[in-house]
Amino acid sequence: MKTEMAGIEIRDLHLSFGETRVLTGINLSIKPGEFFAFLGPSGSGKSTLLRAIAGFGPQPRGEILIGGRDIATLPPWKRDVGMVFQSYALWPHMSVRDNVAFGLEERKVPRAEIRTRVDEALALVGLSHLADRMPNQLSGGQQQRIALARTVVIEPKVLLLDEPLSNLDASLRVQMRRELLALQRKLGLTTIFVTHDQEEANTTSDRMAVLDGGVIQQIGTPQELYDRPVNLFVARFLGTANILEGRVEVEAGAARFRTATGDVLSLPVEGRAGPTSIVLRPQNIRIEEQAGAGTLPGEVLHREFLGSQVRYLVRAAGTEIVVDQSHRAGEIWLDPGARVHLAANTRDAVLIAQEG
Fold first, then answer.
1. Where do the ABC transporter domain residues begin and end (predicted)?
2. Mean pLDDT in the chain?
């Protein structure tokens, strides 16, 4: 099965439903063959952006280029894109083979070529043996594979996936996201994956765009966004984040962070003085029994055993701080009420200046 890799450029895209603005100033570049995710909470605009690329919904303002061609004003069937919907949208009265062949028949492809391409698509998703079944005779995972086969058989330049794993149970989602990524790598097909699940985005995407309120908040690899969020929304949305409010103080070339409660953390590099939030991930905080320079006194409120880790919730610096400690066999755990001291690895912390 042939595929043609094509990059995607979105330039100054705006979209509204009536008087309600849904997407604002979207600028985005996706490389040919890249697996790219749109990640965000419900109502962030991620599915609307995907549908704008597909040609569904209100006409946006701005440019959408696929392979250098502006397709923003073209109808969906002329955009060289294939879309897999959250509900799979299989025809219930058609066999698996007929579902996969449907798009080719609509395009008036010769019958012999249809059979060959359908056979290739079914083999690609490992369901050749189910070609004569009806959709209601398939499991959720099998229906998803048929929806994928029906999409890739038309040989689109871009594959669009609108939360295709959300209807599957947790264990099957893990299996299917691996299969989905393997299929994408095999085809080399430029793919956009919409999800609200950060784990799905982290484990599949080369890069992602985090959206909120119809605006792209940050673009980068999963590691870049987790380690260096540009604002507090991204920090909170990607993983667990401890956020302390305070200010950076600079004196004689040395910087320190003073929390709202007066506790002080030293900083490894000079920061800009002023009101600041510091982002600390749970694994970058240690629990110490004794006070030390720059430690925060606190009290254990709660403990959870997570197998490889023990997660503590500690009251310190006027807030609740999550701390993850590696579990070792025979280790004595701390009980709620224990008095502790927290040592933060500020070398891996992120400083975000407070607006205003």
1. 8-238
2. 90
* CATH class assigned to 8-234: alpha beta
Segment 258-283 shows an average pLDDT of 87
Q: pLDDT tens for residues 146-205?
A: 888 888 888 899 999 998 887 777 777 888 888 888 888 988 899 999 999 898 999 999
For domain 240-353, give its CATH number from 3.40.50.2300, 2.10.10.90, 2.60.40.10, 2.40.50.140: 2.40.50.140
- Residue that the structure tokens 């085809």 belong to: 187
CA–chain centroid gap for 155, Å, is: 25
Scanning the structure block, which residue is given the tokens 């004569």? Answer: 132
Kindly tell me if the per-residue pLDDT of 109 is higher than 80: yes
- Contact between 15 and 58 under an 8 Å Cβ cutoff? The reply is yes
Nearest to 45 by CA among 28, 69, 65, 70: 28
170: left (phi over 0), alpha (psi -120 to 50) or beta: alpha
Check: CB of residue 173 under 8 Å from CB of residue 138.
no
Amino acid at site 170: A
Question: Among the residues of the chain, which ranges form H helices?
Answer: 46-54, 96-106, 111-124, 140-152, 170-187, 198-204, 222-227, 232-237
* Domain range list for the chain: 8-234, 240-353
**Local confidence band at 251 (pLDDT 50, 70, 90 cut-offs):** confident
Determine the straight-line distance between the first and last CA of the chain, rounded to whole angstroms. Answer: 55
* Separation of alpha carbons 275 and 356, rounded Å: 9
Confidence grade of residue 332 (pLDDT, cut at 50, 70, 90): confident
What gap in Å lies between CA 277 and CA 229, rounded to an integer?
12
From residue 189, give the alpha-carbon distance in Å to each of 1, 68, 164.
11, 16, 17
**pTM (predicted TM-score):** 0.88
Residue 12 has pLDDT above 80, yes or no: yes
Question: What pLDDT, on a 0 to 100 scale, did the predictor assign at position 2?
Answer: 60
Q: Cα separation of 76 and 160, whole Å?
A: 12
